[in-house]
Predict the structure.
Amino acid sequence: MKSGLSGLLLLLLLAGCAADKAKPVMVTETKPVAAPTTTSSVITSETRADFETAMTHLKAEEYDAGIALLVKVTKANPDKAVPNINLALAYKQTGKMKQAEDSLKQALLAEADNPVANNELALLYRKTGRFAEARQVYEKILEKYPNFRIAHKNLGILCDLYLKDYDCALKHYVFYSDVVQDDKTIKIWIADLQKRAGR
């Protein structure tokens, strides 16, 4: 239950970091925009209150109320990815995978290279058994963002546990481990994988 919520909070943190440091949100816009300073960079000012209230509901695990508001916000912001990503994460929390997928695809129509939307879509594909599609999404987003560490970790997991492509898994685990050096679990995974692969 908490993993999707972490994703929701991550999006809020990204918007907050952008406000604090006056840097662009991690979301790639489809057209040039000024560096955002508030959540208005990811939604219109008319729907900001609804978006923030929706996020409060989701944080409190009040998914139905949050979803209802986010549906309204996404309709008013069809060219923004962030509301649809959050809507997808809320749908995932309630087990509505089809609606989650539709929301992620809508986010990607607005911002095709959005790393968070792509990562979430690949996770959804993995969860629903579409492993080849998940791999394609990870590989595509890593071409655009080669240092997107969570996508490396998730692609490693996909290759290791689901595709049994141990070379792929090792490559992406090692990349992630080199960047996140204090993650002891990934080091155990690497050692285990090397043992299984006879290395």
Residues 2-21 form the longest helix (20 residues).
